[in-house]
Amino acid sequence: MESKGVTGAAAAGSPRRVVVAVDESEESMHALSWCLSNVVSVAAANAPAAPPPAVVLVHARPTRPLGYPVIDGAGYVLTQEVMDSMDRYMAAAADTVVAKARDICTAFPNVKVETCVEKGDPREVICGAAEKAGAEMLVMGSHGYGFLQRALLGSVSNHCVQNCKCPVVVVKRPSGAAAAAGDNAKTE
């Protein structure tokens, strides 16, 4: 478990915390941009003397299932070296996601950005990080899966809406008329 900057509930007088769940999808990066423009900027404009909310970027790295088969579906033996290589690849992919998200945050130089990268089920990692950070709000993107995909894969955003102790904003990626109207977030 790698965790940087998330040390517990925000102390009195410290800036508010907004947790943003990020992954490799464009939807999560859009949710981050939406949060910076509509939550962080608005908070800074409404209270110029107060520090802007801290943004905590949370990324869940997939774990290797226990008892991972030594032989894959094609009959190849997966050595420890191959397994270690897969772990290094997943760590590099997580670093790339966090770097991309940090790059988006650079457009808002006064925002304090923290990161939290943990191995585990995204539903549990995101809810846990929001609680540890003392988040006032969790912002996440919606992949827009249909009913069947949600039923088979489960919905991370739905789980977070049902289980997080803070308000959860699920940001849908704009499409056509919704993009022009700017109506693409739903608060639960």
Automatic annotation (TrEMBL):
Tell me the Pfam families matching this sequence: Usp
CDD domains associated with the record: USP_At3g01520-like
UspA domain boundaries: 16-172
* UniProt xrefs under InterPro entries: UspA (IPR006016)
Q: What is this protein called?
A: UspA domain-containing protein
Please give the organism: Zizania palustris
